[in-house]
Amino acid sequence: MSFWNQALEIARVDLTVERRIGNTLRITLPFAVVALMVFPLALDLRLALVSTIGIGVFWALGILFGMQVALRQSATDTRERRDLQALLGVDPAARFVGRLLSGGVLMSGFLLIVLLAMVVLFDPDVPNGGWPVLTMSTFLVAIGLTELGTLAGEVTSGLSNRTVLASLIVAPLALPLIIGASQSVGALSRDTGILPWILLLIASDLALAVAGVALAQPLEEATR
Amino acid sequence: MRGLELVVEPGEAVGIAGPNGSGKTTLIRTAATLVSTNRGSLEVLGQIVGKRDLVSTRRAIGLIGHQPTLIPELTLVENLSHVARLAGVDIARVPRALEVVGLDEASDRRAEACSFGMKRRVEIAHLLLTRPQLLLLDEAASGLDESARDLIEALVGSVRRRGGGCIVVSHDRAQLTELCSRVASLADGRLDTAR
Predict the structure, then answer these.
(1) Does the predicted interface ipTM exceed a cut of 0.90?
(2) S-S: B138 plus which of A96, B21, B28, B81, CB 3.0-4.6 Å?
């Protein structure tokens, strides 16, 4: 089976499992939307201020809850299943790419729904030309977070406290994504260039993708 | 494990008996190339196992370990089809494999709703599909009924007839004697002479 067929098969099964468990849609997403709703109430914010902070709240909550979506695989992966895939000749890099595909679909869908909820609840002040930038940033953050979660899951595989450890790895490494995403839309309001921030997001995504593919094999052998 | 030397000839099944913690599972996982040794060498199917070309060597190995490897949220037929696709086996053979292990009626049941014995049968069906040259069984027959044990016996027989090798680990020495051409004992990481 070719590299891409392996990756697609892993992604297909991963999405089937997610559709049946429904962790992202039934648990994480409703909590994220509820958090969006209670945020202005908790801070007793007036409507005008709510519109101003809308995009910032989206990034904070989107990335916070998005980490849970990104780390969902590390909680369910077992040594036995990894052994089975190894004996079936599955390329560890294909597994990484497969998980990236399924995770990317889930994460993009998750962030886009949270973005939609934010638009409805906060009626945000978006500068001219801001929507395409916001959508592109959301997509780039979704890819980056998925890569981080998948990579952290691989690094902590086989450890008893892997879910906690994976979160500790993802949180600091997500900083470039948070900065790039929030500053790209902010740069439009300030009328400064957005290119450096979009490039930061693209560079982060590329670096994580290259690291994930290059480290997949050694990580698999080291964490067995 | 120390000073361990074990040779499994083509068509041979070697049984390994030993108490808990003696290193039986480590031995099986080492033979499966899933654990690397810090000394000595491992040769599987005529190839010295190194870091390179592990993929082709591993594809020729079939393992049934302590814990079932099925994905709980998938049905039995979906689990087996997934394995078949990854192994590059024609998925048209999946229904027949499930029939052979007596699970054709339960093929649409999710793995999480199946008993341990049923999950084991699916793993046997998987090995019937992939036809490994080296079969490794780690307490594979524990907790199984008579007919499932017969399936394992048939599986070992078919691998041996194809000229493959088997290593069977069990607490049950009587069962090993029945299945294997010779049985060795493992204690404190040392293997006595197989006889």
Answers:
(1) no
(2) B28
